[in-house]
Automatic annotation (TrEMBL):
Segment forming the signal sequence: 1-21
Protein name per the record: DUF305 domain-containing protein
Domain of life per record: Bacteria
Keywords: Signal
Pfam families according to UniProt: DUF305
InterPro entries attached to this UniProt entry: DUF305_CopM-like, Ferritin-like
UniProt domain DUF305: residue ranges: 43-178
Length: 184
């Protein structure tokens, strides 16, 4: 009965991704060494989704310096950048530790909170108030979904370091949502 919990959690994570249940089975992670733990399907699904979500959010936030009209939007995006960049380093390290490929297995998928390549094109080709509106809406949706996914990882993940990373990322996303709410 206990072994089914990670599988159920992975399905819940996939369902929270707006119907995208596609994950690429990773090569099995290397056997854990002393003090290391195994990654379960929830850990794998969380990393496969959260890394590209955070990469795209960081890319979007970086665009504010050249495209935003509102000083509040520029300031909020600038405040988010170091956090996003720091989490990317940690997320990629966890992904590598899990033995997962760097490829985005969710490329082209429409999921809550995922800033897509089309969204990035729209941001790059807009300026002023249109850019501000788009960016804030995308980053708010991203922060909200990161919190949902982080809670799922903390509840059902197996790897303690990945669960701690989810806790930290969820807390940061909550703060980011609050910063973005002050731009309105």
């Amino acid at each position: 009965m206990r072994r089914t919990a990670p599988v159920v959690a992975a399905v819940v994570v996939a369902m929270s991704m707006g119907g995208c249940a596609t994950t690429t089975p990773a090569a099995p992670a290397p056997p854990p060494g002393p003090g290391a733990s195994a990654f379960n399907p929830t850990d794998v699904a969380w990393l496969q989704l959260t890394v590209p979500m955070t990469e795209n959010a960081a890319t979007a936030a970086h665009l504010a310096a050249d495209h935003a009209a509102s000083p509040a939007v520029r300031s909020a995006a600038s405040a988010l950048e170091p956090s996003q960049d720091g989490f990317l380093t940690r997320l990629r390290a966890a992904r590598d530790r899990a033995g997962l490929p760097a490829a985005n297995v969710h490329s082209g998928h429409q999921m809550p909170g995922m800033i897509t390549d089309a969204d990035l094109v729209a941001l790059r080709t807009s300026d002023g108030a249109d850019f501000d509106r788009r960016l804030v809406a995308l980053l708010r949706a991203h922060a909200k979904q990161i919190v949902v996914l982080a809670n799922g990882e903390q509840a059902s993940g197996a790897d303690p370091a990945t669960k701690a990373l989810a806790r930290d990322l969820g807390a940061a996303a909550t703060r980011e949502g609050e910063v973005l709410d002050r731009t309105s």
